Amino acid sequence: MNLTLHRTALLLAVASSALGLSSPATGQSPAGAPAKAAAPQAERPRASNKWRIVFDERAKSDGTISFRIWPKDGAPLQVDVAVIDGQSENHIAQSARDALRVALGKGFHVEVDDGEDVLVKARHGTGDFGLQLIGNTARDVDIKLRRE
């Protein structure tokens, strides 16, 4: 097994364990898959129809970046993004884009902008939504959220 595949498999196993998820073989969500957030006590953030996620710096460790999305009139949704040691901000942005696209579906448009930014936009009729950064275990990766 090459080093990258081994590192990815290890990262998924560690992230699954840390998040309390079972492996894909058991039929439950693997790491990086969206999961409903169990946070009734969490405060709903201010909503917008468009958010910018700015990633900065190369990862100095494997880790997971977790976002919570608050759709209009809906329960919050958690999206986890796996990060690999040495991954650049551009590659982290691409991974985040892919995870958010899968989790949010057709009601949203998600794209990479300027290499290291991810834009998340509500499509017409979807309504404004909130976005929160709820965790980041990837060392040295800086993340900023901005309503636009």
Helix content: 10-25%
Specify the overall morphology: globular
Cα-atom radius of gyration? 15 Å
CATH class: Mainly Beta
Determine the N-to-C terminus distance: 44 Å
Mean pLDDT figure = 80
What string, H for helix and E for strand, traces the elements in order? HEEEEHEEEE
Measured by DSSP, the beta-strand proportion falls in 25-35%
Structure described in brief:
By secondary structure, the protein is of the alpha+beta class.
Secondary-structure blueprint:
Layout: H1 3-19, E1 35-36, E2 50-56, E3 63-70, E4 77-83, H2 89-104, E5 108-113, E6 117-122, E7 130-136, E8 142-147
Describe the 3D structure.
The chain is an alpha+beta fold. It has a single domain, classed as Immunoglobulin-like (Sandwich). It is built from two helices and eight strands; from the N terminus they run αββββαββββ. The strands form two sheets. Strands 1-4-3-7 form a four-stranded antiparallel beta sheet. A four-stranded antiparallel beta sheet has the order 5-6-2-8, with helices on one face.
Tags for this model:
148 residues; alpha+beta; Immunoglobulin-like; four-stranded antiparallel beta sheet
